[in-house]
Design a protein that fits this description.
CATH topology of the largest domain in chain B: Rossmann fold
Strand content of chain B: 15-25%
CATH class of the largest domain in chain B: Alpha Beta
Number of strands of chain A: 0
Number of strands of chain B: 16
Strand order of the largest sheet of chain B: 6-7-8-3-9-10
InterPro entries (chain A): ABC_BtuC-like (IPR037294), ABC_transptr_permease_BtuC (IPR000522)
Membrane topology (chain A): Multi-pass membrane protein
CATH architecture of the largest domain in chain B: 3-Layer(aba) Sandwich
Shape of chain A: globular
Radius of gyration of chain A: 21 Å
Distance between the termini of chain B: 71 Å
Organism (chain A): Oliverpabstia intestinalis
CATH superfamily of chain A: ABC transporter involved in vitamin B12 uptake, BtuC
Largest sheet of chain A: none
Family (chain A): Belongs to the binding-protein-dependent transport system permease family. FecCD subfamily.
CATH topology of chain A: ABC transporter involved in vitamin B12 uptake, BtuC
Helix content of chain B: 25-40%
Order of helices and strands of chain B: EEEHEEHEHHHEHEHEEHHEEEHEHEHEH
Keywords (chain A): Cell membrane, Membrane, Transmembrane, Transmembrane helix, Transport
Number of helices of chain B: 13
Shape of chain B: elongated
Order of helices and strands of chain A: HHHHHHHHHHHHHHH
Distance between the termini of chain A: 43 Å
Number of domains of chain B: 2
Largest interface: A-B, 30 and 39 residues
Helix content of chain A: over 70%
Oligomer: heterodimer
Chain lengths: 354, 361
């Protein structure tokens, strides 16, 4: 402590400034972690069956308790909570990457139609596989969603090459979203009865019905992607100054752009494959995280966005489950209620800033 | 050919495979300041983008210390060439210090964390451009002049051997223009950094550049020292000036003279005529003036603005012939203005002209 004080006194204003920044980052992370813990406990605690906190701790750490409560926690609530956290984080991060790529703060997997593209291909794949083999593996769904994401992204890229205008890009994305959703609805309408139950809930977006094997697959795929993303934070930082500057700093632009598209597509594909399309998280969370950190430095924003997205989605899932229990809301309904106002605020704020 | 440090050899540049300018042949020595001038849209930026590899070159070569620039990796290139571009960027939530620090990119590790040494380099770069006090300010919240200085600091911090700047002085007021250019000047001369830039202000180009490249639409029309380039006719052709004048000696710009029979005669000399010429010019009145020595400052302006100038050889007594001519012209004018010209041994003849003027009244 003493040492630090001396170091601070000797340093210039800059370095004091740096110290302030670091404290700010630390406190944001601490708040997010605390929120994470609180919401996790709340999430496990609440539901149609109330289980007291001592009992929960016993069940989780000592793995003892009555059979029903044990099953509720281990088979239903825990996987669902973890999934909400992982997928929420992935979705937010995917949004951050897309915003970097398009140099547009309102870009995100949902508004650009990427989620809908993934949804369409997943729906087609599900119907095909369920009709033939009665089962679909998680990996197949992820690959299907990934292909769907890439198709939608490819289309957006074609449009953006011709017209690089923020509003036009969003309109194109929303149109793609509608087209893909229309195709999905069409397919769902004509699918066999047994498929529909499955598809309908999913195509509206939901974290329900997650099991441990889903969690494992999602954790592995998303974990690896996030690690790659984290190591891309240096070129992402350069890219924030614009393509030309990034190149002059030694970034291989072509390779970097491909990596950005691939990682953001994998992330949003994973989310769509497991939980269906979820709106606004990808735009609102990165924005809120950057504002609270007071920086857009990727090295810090990437982990914070992931954590923030996790917390946000867990909270929304809790509300989706509990608001009108025993009825369950779509997750998108809740994320829209919280996310859309943030986006509107962002747009108004930006106008003022200009 | 090997004697040049940076060499554009038969270079062809353009967009999307369409050549815009070809056969560019330019040799640059280390520590020189090379300025590209030419009308808007003539391809200055295209050349700059091509030599920094943002655009593919369509023919010829760019040689850097005899290596083909397009064979270097982006990483190698980044430690040699830094850029300051015209594109306005709006980075989110970045302080000026953050912006300058991005210049350290080629030198930092995998995650781009700045070492103490990097921090010191950033501080030093900020000092060179006199922007120390801007460190913690948001980059979007500072003025254009400050922004250009911060971007220059960013380039300096990249420790390049060549800095390429695309119109660095646009948007700047005169004080900031001078400040920026003098920083560049000292960088080039003290640190041996080669500066290649485009400028709008030809007068400034003449004063700062060691070599000037005139770009006109489809070809490079001249390349040479300012003394070779700055002939009135060259500039006239380059920019297609039809209205007005450009005086290459002082880099001043004048609107076209008022044509017609002179209505006012100005007796001037020793710089006393200049404010009167300007006033008449603004009021759109054609005028004649005299008797001016051809080395008089008044003459430099009079030859551009006056409908008629009566001159005398430097350091000679005014001849009767010229005096008669002046009186004749004066008699055809409606008005005579006598500026407060000092009269000495040589220009005694003016006294007679003034007497003639008084007689007319």
């Amino acid at each position: 402590m003493k040492k630090r004080k001396e170091a601070l006194q000797g340093a210039t204003d800059f370095h004091y400034e740096n110290f302030l920044r670091r404290s700010r980052y630390t406190s944001v992370f601490l708040v997010l972690l605390a929120a994470f813990c609180v919401i996790t406990v709340l999430n496990i605690n609440t539901g149609n069956v109330d289980i007291s906190i001592p009992k929960i701790l016993k069940i989780i750490f000592l793995r003892e308790g009555n059979k029903m409560e044990y099953n509720i926690i281990w088979k239903i609530r825990l996987p669902r909570i973890l999934m909400a956290a992982i997928l929420g984080g992935a979705l937010s991060l995917s949004g951050f990457l897309l915003q970097t790529f398009f140099e547009n703060p309102i870009a995100g997997p949902f508004v650009l139609g990427i989620s809908s593209g993934a949804k369409m291909v997943v729906a087609l794949t599900m119907i095909y596989f369920l009709g033939r083999f009665q089962v679909v593996s998680s990996y197949t769904l992820i690959i299907a969603a990934f292909i769907g994401s890439l198709i939608a992204t490819g289309f957006i890229l074609l449009v953006s090459r011709r017209i690089n205008h923020m509003a036009t890009l969003l309109v194109a994305g929303i149109m793609i979203g509608y087209i893909c959703s229309a195709v999905t609805d069409f397919v769902v309408t004509f699918a066999e009865d047994s498929d529909i139950v499955n598809l309908h809930g999913w195509s509206q977006g939901s974290f329900s019905g997650m099991n441990w094997s889903n969690v494992k697959v999602a954790a592995v795929v998303i974990g690896v992607t996030i690690l790659i993303t984290f190591f891309m934070s240096k070129p992402i930082g350069a890219y924030q100054l614009g393509e030309a500057y990034a190149q002059s700093m030694g970034v291989n632009i072509r390779f970097f752009r491909i990596m950005l598209i691939l990682t953001s597509s994998v992330l949003s594909a994973c989310v769509t494959a497991f939980a269906g399309p979820i709106s606004f998280v990808g735009i609102a969370v990165p924005y809120l995280v950057k504002r609270s950190l007071g920086t857009s430095r990727p090295l810090i924003v990437i982990p914070a966005t992931f954590l923030g997205g996790g917390v946000f989605c867990m909270m929304c899932d809790l509300i989706a489950r509990m608001a009108f229990a025993p009825l369950e809301l779509n997750i998108s309904t809740v994320t829209s209620i919280f996310g859309a106002p943030v986006v509107i605020f962002m747009m108004l704020h930006r106008k003022k800033g200009n | 050919m090997g004697e040049y440090y940076f060499h554009l050899d038969q270079l062809t540049v353009g967009y999307n495979g369409k050549p815009l300018i070809d056969q560019i042949q330019v040799g640059i020595h280390k520590g020189e300041i090379v300025t590209l001038i030419g009308p808007n849209g003539s391809g200055k930026s295209t050349i700059l983008k091509s030599i920094t590899r943002q655009l593919k070159i369509l023919g010829g070569k760019v040689l850097y210390e005899e290596n083909d620039l397009h064979k270097l990796s982006y990483k190698e290139l980044s430690t040699r060439i830094a850029v300051v571009l015209t594109e306005r960027m709006r980075p989110e939530l970045m302080t000026c210090h953050d912006i300058v620090a991005t210049g350290r990119y080629p030198y930092t590790g995998r995650l781009g964390i700045l070492s103490r040494e990097d921090e010191n380099k950033v501080d030093e770069a900020m000092r060179i451009v006199h922007a120390e006090e801007l460190g913690s300010r948001d980059f979007n919240a500072i003025s254009d002049g400050q922004r250009q200085r911060v971007l220059l600091a960013r380039a300096i911090c990249q420790e390049p051997e060549i800095i390429v700047l695309d119109e660095p002085t646009s948007f700047l007021d005169i004080r900031h223009k001078l400040e920026l250019l003098s920083i560049l000047r000292s960088m080039a001369k003290e640190k041996g950094i080669t500066v290649i830039m485009s400028l709008h202000e030809i007068d400034l180009a003449q004063k700062i550049a060691d070599q000037i490249l005139c770009v006109k639409g489809d070809h490079v029309c001249y390349y040479g020292t300012p003394e070779q380039i700055f002939e009135e006719q060259t500039i006239r052709e380059l920019y297609g000036i039809e209205n007005g004048f450009y005086d290459p000696r002082f880099g001043s710009i004048e609107l076209p003279k008022v044509e017609g029979e002179p209505e006012v005669f100005v007796i001037a000399g020793c710089g006393r005529g200049i404010p009167i010429y300007r006033k008449l010019q603004k009021d759109n009145i054609p005028f004649a003036t005299g008797i001016l020595y051809t080395n008089d400052v008044d003459y430099q302006l009079a030859r551009l603005l006056a409908a008629r100038v009566i001159t005398e050889e430097p350091f000679c007594q005014i001849t009767q012939e010229h005096l008669r001519e002046a009186i004749k012209v004066m008699e055809n004018c409606k008005k005579v203005i006598c500026a407060d010209v000092p009269i000495g041994e040589c220009n005694k003849g003016l006294e007679e002209l003034i007497r003639a003027a008084k007689k007319r009244m």
